[in-house]
Fold:
Amino acid sequence: MTSNREIHLASRPQGWPTEDTFRLVETEVPTPGPGQIVVRNQYMSVDPYMRGRMNDVKSYVPPFALDAPLDGAAIGAVVASEAADIAVGTTVLHGLGWREYTLLDGAAARPVDPNIAPVSAYLSVLGMTGLTAYAGLLEVAAMKPGETVFVSAAAGAVGSLVGQIAKLKGAGRVIGSAGSPAKVERLRALGFDAAFDYHDGIRESLRAAAPDGIDVYFDNVGGDHLEAAISAMNLHGRAAICGMISQYNATEPPAAPRNLALVIGKRLTLRGFLVNDHNDMRAAFVRDVAGWLRDGTLSYDETIVDGIENAPAAFLGLLRGDNLGKMLVRV
Structure:
């Protein structure tokens, strides 16, 4: 093959991105130099944080460049190698998705064993997604056995794992919110003690599901969800702030939360975090999750969209909440 297709950022969106935000570009398959490899990507991830990188603002990661390929987690097979320690045929995890073929330094790729699990799992339950759920719940929010846990966007890639891990680690009650009746049913099938459709009213639904309050909130949404969680939190409650997808496309300041004064009297802890700050937990994470997958006590969902040309549509669908579990593109 000599043809390579990439998705470039064509413009910086104001509010919601559209298909015109992206451009499909055809290039040549790259040739590796000393120490480099070429990977034929098999799967790539689309994630909510990518919306922020489309804005030209200072953040914890640089913004995407205009008229250049986007990037993000991907996995594939090495098809050409000038790296002494990575052979052709090796399956590797790396950070240059949004293209069919990737050129990168061998040191920037992490070989994985495709025989342990489907390769897509390294982008979800066995990858950054899984570690985010594990570290956010157990270290950032410091969940203790017997506590009541509330998870927003609980049918998503991270949230669905948070709820299950909470139960496996001894939570007394786990509650999830989602955006449709079908997703609510899925949460119940995954072992959540209670689940509700947030369209039915967040504060009222949470009060009914947790009449004795909540101790831990894992926040993927922000806004009204965070406001409701603060109201429901018991003394010394903790919130792990993972994401705020309700605000990513907003063009006006958010109206909620309007009850932050409760943080004082309740002595709450609201702590934001990034998964890369918790790589010291990776060994424990892999040990626990691999065991749970082997014995069938942990499940994970994937929504897969086929074709690099459909990566923008997959990303837009993710922002709308079309996915169940992890949203992936099969390149």
